[in-house]
Design goal:
This protein has 155 residues and is mostly beta strands. 5% of the residues lie in helices and 48% in strands.
């Protein structure tokens, strides 16, 4: 995972194997007919302190704009779970056709007392619950966001 201090609003998520972004939300849904789940755990101090009420936003960029798939808040344990998201059929992992067997999303975890954490290209797999830990850092006056970009999973 690579980190950076600025978030490029014009960046596109990892698309299909042909390196072209989906034109629209509707095109994406037509190509991603299965679902996977996401669980986010926000914490501070090496998982000692859970961060309740952190806003978790799941988005994806398309050629015609950004779509928000889900917004949730972490519970008293710092967890937002059962976030259901469209993804590719797991059967694609059994063929050598080159099409990736997952969908990717940008997950933003925000709390007013902590630096916003942005996780780009987070893969979601069919019938799997993916876990994204969010190590929240207290605001120090200068940091606004940290960006972490996932490389394409090695399948």
């Amino acid at each position: 995972v690579n980190s950076a201090n600025i978030y490029d609003q014009n960046r596109r998520d990892l698309p299909r194997s042909n390196n072209q972004a989906y034109a629209s939300y509707e095109d994406f849904l037509a190509d991603n007919t299965k679902t996977g789940k996401l669980r986010v755990q926000a914490y501070a101090s090496q998982q000692v302190f859970p961060i309740p009420n952190a806003k978790v936003t799941v988005t994806k960029d398309f050629e015609d704009g950004r779509h928000t798939f889900n917004e949730a808040y972490t519970d008293i344990d710092g967890v937002a779970e059962n976030i259901v998201l469209p993804t590719k059929d797991k059967s694609l992992s059994l063929s050598s056709g080159g099409e990736i067997p997952f969908a990717t999303y940008t997950v933003t975890v925000a709390h007013p007392n902590f630096t916003t954490q942005i996780y780009e290209n987070l893969p979601i797999f069919d019938s799997i619950e993916s876990m994204q830990p969010a190590a929240m850092l207290p605001l120090n006056g200068s940091d606004k966001a940290q960006v972490f970009r996932e490389d394409e999973p090695n399948l």
